[in-house]
Amino acid sequence: MFSLRTAVLLLASLRVAFAAQSVAFVPPSTSPTKPSPNYVGQSNFTLPRPIIQHGIVFDQMIVVNLENTDFSVAASSPVFQQLARQGITYTNSHGLAHPSEPNYMGQGGASTFGLFSDDFEDIPANVSSVVDLLEEKHISWASYQENMPCNGYNGKTFASFNYLTGSGTDNFYARKHNQLAMYNSTKLNPRRAGLMRNYNDFANDLNAAALPQYIFMTPNIVNDAHDTDINFASAYLEYFLIPLLDNPKFNGPRTLILLTFDEDETGPENNLIFTLALGNAVPKKLHGTTDNTYLTHYTVLTTPQVNWGLNCLGRQDTNKTMANVLGFVAEATGYKNLVVKNPPTTNDTVAIPGPFSPIASFVTPWEGPDIHAKCANPKGHVYVNNNPPVNPDLYNNGQCPQVAFSSNPLLEWNTEFDAQIIAEQRKFHASSFDFEPFERIW
């Protein structure tokens, strides 16, 4: 009988074997700024330009996730070496678990909830996520998922035309790589579901200078190296990310881009992953440097918390060992990172307690957050969401939510909050800040 570690290594070898036989990288579009006919989901609206809520260090954070690669393998790629010269390489950054899904779940809500698989799981609507923290401070957000067929799609995978081979279909989209699709507080809320978008939406939002302030991006399952290898992913980055670094609508004056991997491949170094801070928010004097601060995926939660003064979730984002902040952001905000001399095991070979634990004796009820926990933001408190506005019937007729997104998902906001947003637009427009207030698209 296989041990879990043997099974993981076997899957890794199978992926390598597949990669060796796979076709070469093919750009899904003529440019990352152009919508693609290779994507089923066609965008029919553009987000409004965001009202910019200024942060201490950055005004926009974009998290791009790649897949299943050891640190040493990524570091050996000439493309990653090129990118490293333009940013900060984090040499002590770690995934949370194996396989993929717990890592994305953790980025979205500060816990893996005991998950030890890629199973289709739903997190109850009263369990808060990073979205609640952002919206509480009126910080715009979106999730862009390559090859997702419709906004808010709830299927486990989606098979679309195989543009690599020119025939047949392949499951290019995988829900397990979508941080927010697992959270009912997002996917069962019509407005929020409309902000889980595809890459055609991304192209249109980018061209309209309407990218939100906090963004998750996941390439499809070949471009992220999951079903391919680092060479394929490197070619994808040459097509997609490298040109966008020179595009001011993507990489603005105060944009932070975090390029990372969900987990390692073979597991020799406690799930050590290659993580890189890029973008104009990274001081030029730090380009080409390394930082050995112990980081995990919870860093994508605590870093915006100290930057924008957000509240916290009262889960692992308040665990000082697991939730250090990017070093240059910590220095600028006065946050003191913990020097972790004996890091916990994040290369899971045993299950851990939680509602999704596969071991019956480890299964726990859904518990509320620790309301007495200390947030990374010293003025913050633990956010508690007891009555989220969700529609449990949103997916009654299929995997796409039953709501029209033909105009603008933000129209679903309640009147009081909507009026507040408009008032703030006018305030910002009247200031010296040079962003135009958005027009509603009816």
Automatic annotation (TrEMBL):
InterPro entries to which the protein is assigned, alphabetical: Alkaline_phosphatase_core_sf, Phosphoesterase
Signal peptide bounds: 1-19
Molecular-function GO terms, alphabetical: hydrolase activity, acting on ester bonds
Pfam families: Phosphoesterase
GO biological process terms held by the UniProt record: phospholipid catabolic process
Entry keywords, A to Z: Hydrolase, Signal
Protein name as annotated: Acid phosphatase
Phylogenetic classification of the source organism: Eukaryota, Fungi, Dikarya, Basidiomycota, Agaricomycotina
